[in-house]
Amino acid sequence: MAKHPFQTAIEDGASREQLGAILDPNVTMWAPLLTDPVRGRELVLDLLAEVAQVAKPIAYTSQVADQNQTLLFWDGAVAGHPVQGVTILIDGADGRIREVRAVLRPWPVVNLLVQAIRERIGDKFPAAAWELGQKTAGSRVFTPIALRPLHPAPDMVLHSPILAKAVTGGEEVTEAVRIAHQVQSESSYTCVIATPDRVIELFDCDADGYPMEGIWDRRLNSDGQVTELSVYLRPFPAVTVLHFNAKTIAQRGGFLAGEDYWELPDGG
Fold first, then answer.
1. Cα(192)–Cα(198) distance, rounded to whole angstroms?
2. What domains does the chain contain, in order, with CATH numbers?
3. Cα 235 from chain centroid?
4. pLDDT in tens, 30-59
């Protein structure tokens, strides 16, 4: 699969003008940091430039696409702490990007990213865009799809969007997911991309009534068991609700009780 022009532009250190040339003038970005969408080429370029600086170096690890969109998986670092993301691109009929969506993990590092970006260009966006919007509980209908159950391998690893470090072991991962789902609603899957060794699911859901978008990326072994699950979410204000509510539930039950699961060492 040929690299998407967006990936090539970022890897080559494209100028603002060069990157802008592949964006539609009316491009919309659903950023991982903000509740409201960012509309228009200039504002989107502003945000992309700052994220690229704060989260550098960005290294793309894989590209997956269907007939509607391209998913770019990448690794970066914020203040020396690893951050992972997925950039979802929808191209227009003329080949220029008309929609960008991005989801990130893990919460403690994304928190550092939000603080840094807000300090640098926070005044370019409405203050409300950095905060929680209105709850949508009861107004959204979620319709899970029926997939063949995918069972965890005994040594399965979870890379959670709300935890500071990985969870290892099939039973432990199952419990961590169960705790998150006490706060997170059922999901509506908007897209599923599957290969023999990987299943990627895009979904919408709520965290205590606040809307979120996410990706489940499951890696499979030759027996069809899940060996690795990486979950990415947006927007940050809603993910924060999930993070703290799940932390309360987990620590009350004595599971994932250590602060090292929830926060960076020494506060990051």
1. 10
2. 5-121 (3.10.450.50), 152-267 (3.10.450.50)
3. 8
4. 999 999 999 999 999 999 999 999 999 999
How far apart CA 103 and CA 262 sit, in angstroms, is 19
Q: Which amino acid is at 192?
A: V
CB-CB neighbours of 199 under 10 Å? 20
User: Which of 75 and 142 is assigned the larger pLDDT?
Assistant: 75
What separation, in Å, do the N-terminal and C-terminal C-alpha atoms of the chain show? 38
Could you tell me which of 23, 262, 34, 218 has the C-alpha nearest to residue 129? 34
Own/partner contacts of 140-147, CB < 8 Å, gap of 24 or more, are 140/188, 140/204, 140/206, 140/211, 141/188, 142/185, 142/186, 142/187, 142/188, 142/204, 142/205, 143/188, 144/186, 144/187, 144/188, 144/189, 145/189, 145/192, 147/192, 147/199
Per residue in 101-143, pLDDT (tens digit) is 999 999 999 999 999 999 999 999 999 999 998 787 555 666 6
Reading the block at residue 222, the tokens are 């030759």
Record the tokens describing residue 251, joined without a space. 């620590």
Least confident of 19-28, 100-109, 186-195: 186-195
Read off the pLDDT of residues 82-91 as tens digits, 9 standing for 90 and up: 999 999 999 9
What is residue 235's predicted lDDT score, i.e. its pLDDT?
A: 97
| Integer CA distances (angstroms), 114 to 32, 86, 215, 216, in order | 9, 16, 20, 22
